[in-house]
Structure formats: structure tokens, C-alpha cells
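User: Predict the complex.
Assistant: Input components as received:
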Amino acid sequence: MNELYAILFGFITLLGGVTTAIYRDPFDKLISLSLLAAGIFPFIVDRGYVDVAAAAALIAPLGTIFTLMVCRRRARDA
Amino acid sequence: MIALAVVAVIAALEAVRVVAERNTMRKLPYLNVVSFAITGSLMLLLPHPLTILACAAYFVGSTLESNAIASTWSGGIRKHE
């Protein structure tokens, strides 16, 4: 991977991580978390671990969906 | 490789727009643009038959994630009571 691509995708990953830590709203947090996941995948694929990338791409949304169930329950109780 | 550079720059710019946008609902189209750009960059990084599988998995997964966030944020299915 060229340095330019490493800088750009690393920038996306860092931006997602920092904003996930900063935001207070849970939906904003989840959106930033998916930004973080989006930045990771080019690094995984660039090394040749394509099967790992496919598995991670299918497992990462499952975690988001389980977190969304908790968010909806909190919103309904409040 | 100019195509990969263009797609990566688009992904970074739209990531900045996701963070800069204040409204939660308006972040989601920009997040979709990031997902499309990342899918294209995955395919351009490693031209291999198995990469198509990873790209399809990432495309389906990220779209599902965005749609799940949007439908939960808007309240989900309304029941008739």
C-alpha cells in the first residue's frame, strides 16, 4: 500500500475512533463506530487476508444491531 | 493508480463530512458514500476472485448497518393500538 492510501485510510480510522469517544448521543456513536470499521478494511485486504475481511464485514453489523436493541429499549423505558 | 487515489480521497472527504454534520439523520447518506468508496477501494487494492466475496460481504453488511441505525432512530415499526 502506498503511503498516500495508508494516510487516508488511517485518517478515516482515527477520525472514527476519536469521534466515537467524544460523542454523547448513542446513534452518533454507532455511526462513528461504523466509520472506524470502514477505515480498517483496506488494511486487512491489503495484507491478503480476504477471508478475514469477509468474516469481519459480516460480523461487525451484528454487533451494531445488538447494540441498537439496547438503545431502543432504553429510549422506550425513558 | 489514479482510480484508487480518487476513491480514497472521496472516502476521506466524506468521512470529514460525516463528522462535521450535526444532524444524526443527515450523517447516514454520507456514511453510505464512505461505504461505497471503501468497497471500491477494496476491489482496486487486491484484484483477486476472493476479493469479490469480501466486497459483496462488506457492501451488504454496511448497508444493513446503516439501514438498521436509520430505522431504529426513526422509531421502528409502528404498531396499531
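Chain A touches chain B through 39 residues (CB under 8 Å).
Let me know if you want any component modeled separately.
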